[in-house]
From TrEMBL:
It comes from Aquila chrysaetos chrysaetos. The keyword DNA repair does not apply. It is found in: Membrane. The lineage of its organism: Eukaryota, Metazoa, Chordata, Craniata, Vertebrata. The chain crosses the membrane at residues 15-34. Its main location: membrane. GO terms for molecular function: anandamide 11,12 epoxidase activity; anandamide 14,15 epoxidase activity; anandamide 8,9 epoxidase activity; heme binding; iron ion binding; oxidoreductase activity, acting on paired donors, with incorporation or reduction of molecular oxygen, reduced flavin or flavoprotein as one donor, and incorporation of one atom of oxygen. Keywords: Heme, Iron, Membrane, Metal-binding, Monooxygenase, Oxidoreductase, Transmembrane, Transmembrane helix. One of its GO terms (biological process) is coumarin metabolic process. Pfam families: p450. The keyword Magnesium does not apply. This is Cytochrome P450 family 2 subfamily D member 6/pseudo.
Length: 507
């Protein structure tokens, strides 16, 4: 009996100690959380109630963040704040707000937040690529070099437009080989678009059935899927979790495999490199690296080469491929619009001659349809995050330096104050009363300002030539046994159509 009483007293004492320890830890963590939270700045944007530790993360569906932002936009206005754990975010909505930030106050919003989840890929202080690089001298030098190299792509034997025209020929042959049977156009379009950027960057194109090419595209798709959802957000906010052995490799297996593949392409390329014969973008970058220490200080290093080419691969393939998938989905759903485009193609180009960029000025309706696909398809609904480069003010709100900025591009492309029918596919948004092409200023699918999309020039070229050539050669119809395709998208950094089948009938 005495033993039982003794044990009971010991357990009671332990429980008391555990309770005290629990209370201490709770108070400590709440105090730590309070100290990490933002200051109460005067005139800071409004937002939902922030909870301990998680902030406002419960208010956002990370699989469809733009839908959550649109709901919060209705409640809090064009500028509102969020908090991911202890990071401050401000979301910008509507054309006027986004334009004022990215165009009129471009340098104030030109920085990028740092993402610890990319460290395992080689990102660091001296190797950031272009797309996610911090704003500064190195970023300016690399972006200037990249844009001028792509713009003046007279190097090698073919211009950019010639490369696009050649690739669309391979694409038409592949579509024709389906012989009118139902097929998923996504794979062929993705192959063609990626081949254009591969020949531009690495001087190499692949046959559509090539096993290596299929592996590259599969790895790239997996890497994009890994960046969506709640877990990457959490790991960015609590980067100590990334120090747990094996976590980055397991969570971001696709990203690592994709970068490993990029390394193989570059290493293979370097074996045949000749500074006297510049074949592609990689050769041009290697030539800059030859300039020594000055070039390295401007960001021209091997690690930046792999990151910059990976950036270009992403910027020059995913959004264009997805936009074309939306384009042919809308042609299935609106056959009368497809017929009008084909009539304009027949009138201006005919059935035999290949379309060129010079034809675009004479084809207002086709041009309007392509732009409406970009607007209504809403491929990059929230853009890439920006960060304030210094303290700034926007529409009366104070936003401190180092705040992550989310530009809700979806709210711009579907701004009810700008577009006549924002939630319908309506090519007349880009036509005046006389049928001439017009482009409203709120058309910002490539974002705007200093951080506008690197691949915009190439994307515009590919969209026009791919779209007009395919509709010149084929009429796209829905297979008889297939249900009407869904018009809503699925989000994984980009918003893409749900899979659908199509029949391509030769004209």
């Amino acid at each position: 009996m005495a033993l039982l009483l003794w044990l009971q007293s010991q357990l009671s004492s332990c429980w008391s100690n555990i309770s005290v320890l629990g209370v201490f830890l709770t108070v400590f963590t709440l105090l730590f959380d309070f100290m990490k939270r933002r200051k109460k700045w005067s005139h800071y944007p409004p937002g939902p109630v922030s909870l301990p530790f998680i902030g406002t993360m419960l208010y956002v569906d990370f699989r469809n963040p733009h839908l959550s932002f649109n709901q919060l936009h209705k409640k809090f206005g064009n500028i509102f704040n969020l908090q991911n754990c202890w990071s401050n975010l401000v979301v910008l909505n509507g054309y006027k707000t986004v334009k004022e930030a990215l165009v009129h106050r471009s340098e104030d919003f030109a920085d990028r937040p740092y993402f610890p989840v990319y460290e395992h890929l080689g990102y660091g202080n001296k190797s950031e690529g272009i797309v996610m690089a911090r704003y500064g001298h190195v970023w300016k030098e690399l972006r200037k070099f990249t844009l001028s190299t792509l713009r003046n792509f007279g190097m090698g034997k073919k211009s950019l437009e010639e490369r696009v025209t050649e690739e669309v020929g391979f694409l038409c042959s592949a579509v024709n080989s389906e012989e009118g049977r139902p097929f998923d156009l996504r794979f062929l379009v993705n192959n063609a678009v990626c081949n254009v950027i591969c020949t531009t960057i690495y001087g190499e194109r692949f046959d559509y059935g090539d096993a290596t090419f299929k592996k590259l595209l599969h790895l790239f798709e997996n890497s994009l899927n890994e960046e969506a959802g709640f877990l990457p957000q959490l790991l960015n906010e609590v980067p100590i979790l990334l120090r747990i052995p094996g976590v980055p490799q397991k969570v971001f297996r696709g990203q690592k495999a994709f970068m490993d593949f990029i390394d193989v392409l570059i290493d293979k390329h370097m074996e045949t490199w000749n500074p006297a014969h510049i074949r592609d973008f990689t050769d041009a970058f290697l030539k800059e690296m030859e300039k020594g220490k000055v070039a390295e200080e401007n960001g021209f290093s091997y690690n930046n080469l792999r990151l910059v080419t990976a950036d270009l691969f992403a910027a020059g393939s995913e959004t264009t491929s997805t936009t074309l998938q939306w384009a042919f989905l809308y042609m299935l759903l609106h056959p009368e619009i497809q017929s009008k485009v084909q009539a304009e193609i027949d009138k201006v180009i005919g059935r035999e001659r290949s379309p060129t960029m010079k034809d675009q000025a004479s084809m207002p309706y086709t041009n309007a349809v392509i732009h409406e696909v970009q607007r209504y398809g809403d491929v990059v609904p929230i853009g890439l995050p920006h960060m304030t480069y210094r303290d700034t003010k926007l529409q009366g709100f104070f936003i401190p330096k180092g705040t992550t900025i989310i530009t809700n591009l979806s709210s711009v492309l579907k701004d009810e104050a700008v577009w006549e029918k924002p939630n319908e596919f309506y090519p007349e948004h880009f036509l005046d009363a006389n049928g001439h092409f017009v482009k409203p200023e709120a058309f910002l699918p490539f974002s705007a300002g200093r951080r506008a999309c690197l691949g915009e020039q190439l994307a515009r070229m590919e969209l026009f030539i791919f779209f007009t050539t395919l509709l010149q050669k084929f009429t796209f119809v829905l297979p008889e046994d297939q249900p009407r395709p869904r018009e809503d998208g699925r989000f994984a950094l980009t918003s893409s159509p749900h899979p659908y089948l199509v029949r391509a009938v030769p004209r």
